[in-house]
Amino acid sequence: MSPYLLLSVAIVAEVVATTAMKSSEGFTRLWPSIAVVVGYAIAFYFLSLTLKTIPTGIAYAIWAGAGIVLIALLGWIVHRQALDLPAILGMGLIVSGVLVIQVFSRSSGH
């Protein structure tokens, strides 16, 4: 299986877990709390599989960049959290950085 597919599963699981963390209200609601624990377990398991072939720094840069953007978008959609222009521009820079790594870095594990 492609290490980037494994990394994508890890990112989605982490985003679901982090979004559920807000919904858990400090781990006082059962089902969102269970989603947090299960989501992070899946996320770290799949991240560990990617580290067999993708360098740690590269995998973590992609994980963090994609996670920041996806969590901010879900916060906006699910929890009605505002995104102002500086936040949107900053996330654009994060996405640009991940793209630079993927397109130009020789250490990205292609």
Tell me briefly what this model is.
The chain is built from 4 helices and no strands. It has 110 residues and is an all-alpha fold. Helix 1 packs antiparallel against helix 2, helix 1 packs parallel to helix 3 and helix 3 runs antiparallel to helix 4.
Per-chain topology:
Blueprint: H1 3-23, H2 30-50, H3 56-78, H4 85-104
Helix pairs in contact: 1-2, 1-3, 3-4
Keywords:
110 residues, 77% helix
Can you offer a commentary on this structure?
- By secondary structure, the protein is mostly helical.
- The protein has one domain.
- The protein contains four helices and no strands.
- Helix 1 packs antiparallel against helix 2.
- The radius of gyration is 15 Å and the shape is flat.
- The two termini are about 15 Å apart.
Tally the helices: what do you get?
4
Main pleated sheet: none
Annotation, overall tally of beta strands: 0
| Radius of gyration over all CA atoms, rounded | 15 Å
Helix percent reads over 70%
Distance between the termini: 14 Å
Proportion of residues in extended strands: under 5%
